[in-house]
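Feature request disguised as a bug: please show the residue count (509) next to Natural resistance-associated macrophage protein 4 in the output. Example input:
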Amino acid sequence: MAPSQPESDETRPLINRAPPEEDPSDKVQVIGIDEEDEDYHKTPPFSWKKLWLFTGPGFLMSIAFLDPGNLEGDLQAGAIAGYSLLWLLMWATAMGLLVQLLAARLGVATGRHLAELCREEYPNWARLLLWFMAELALVGADIQEVIGSAIAIKILSNGVLPIWAGVLITASDCFVFLLLENHGVRKLEAVFAVLIATMAISFAWMFGEAKPNGVELLAGLAVPKLSSKTIQQAVGVVGCIIMPHNVFLHSALVQSREIDRSKRGKVQEAINYYSIESTAALFISFIINLFVTAVFAKSLYGTAAANTIGLSNAGYYLQDKYGYSILYIWAIGLLAAGQSSTITGTYAGQFIMGGFLNLRLKKWIRSLITRSCAIVPTIAVALVFDTSEEMLDGLNEWLNVLQSIQIPFAMIPLLCLVSREEIMGVFRIGPLVKVASWLVAALIIVINGYLLLEFFTSQVTGALFTSLVAIFTAGYVLFILYLVSRGVTSTTCVGSRKSEDNADTLDSA
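Example output, currently without the count:
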């Protein structure tokens, strides 16, 4: 018998752990003309048919860039800063794209999503804390999404249905989601395509009605401008782009396609197609966000109403300026944004809870638990804040802060995991992408840190409350440092082991 040869980069498995068993019926079969090609390395040639089969997860991911919280950030940026922050919106979307591409890469290369990998990589106390933070961010996002949808329902019903009734109606989308999912992932993706198209048509219609100044719009995209009066809106634009639960979601969505991970070329092919469709999806989301910002820049910039605008009254300001119909066009777009984002929130909740806690529950049970975690506090919020728009806007600020706090606990584990060879195999990111990714992460964390500092400086009063915030801040910073140091230590240990293995190979030779 011939002696066995040592594994090389060409023959070793892509990852050391096999992905969990899944129901093949849940997967989309990707079949092309090159299926007989057994070359391990070769990436199949580009195929429009295959791109179509891989298209879907990126558009579901892009919903988080179009949720009611983002729309509120867009309209406030336009009303207060005019066109001057469009350049920041463009670059923030590009930064968000980089983070989402890394999440997709992690899911494709490992066959696991981020929550599952965090469960395996961190000790129990850190894993449970990460899970708690992810759930908290998801609940905060879901409250905004459900309230935004309920506001749209109230407008479309001419005030007959109050906010709390809209919340209950929106809560029922969980069962619609289950029905769609049982009919296959492509049917679910088609529904989201319709909702995105509805948003695009609604906000494009508003853009056409408002007729923003084209020269000023292009200047806002090309010329970076920032003043002390618009710094809060600038921070809000960047802070709204990265949604913690969306990082977990995208790493799971890409596993809906059947990929032969025993072949390096097939994995690279999937990464390529997901990169193309994610880029296209976020380009469309950027255009939609640009429409909203430009409409309110043209309509309210420089007016007394600019500092008081929010989701609850934005449509009525447009109605006063452009007529009755635009109120309903705005409400239809807002409803599509709210409904689609609440469904993706439910979807993300399943992966977060199941991955961190290793739950093996039926889909409808996981959806019911996830939905209840968000809908119960949302109903309470609707009952308390329904009578006061000012209180509702104040709540929205707190929810934005809540989600900003969670961003490091999704981004840092993602960057640490996607950089490690024993996790990613040959698909770990290279030094250039690693540096760029950490710079983006640091920028986003610093920007959100500024937002948190400014917010708590203005809101925190009293010795007891100040002490509690100080203790929380200390623990928060220490946990971030722990996550970073653990990632650095793991990468260093892997590099040392690899050097020792190479030295052993040379000695034996």
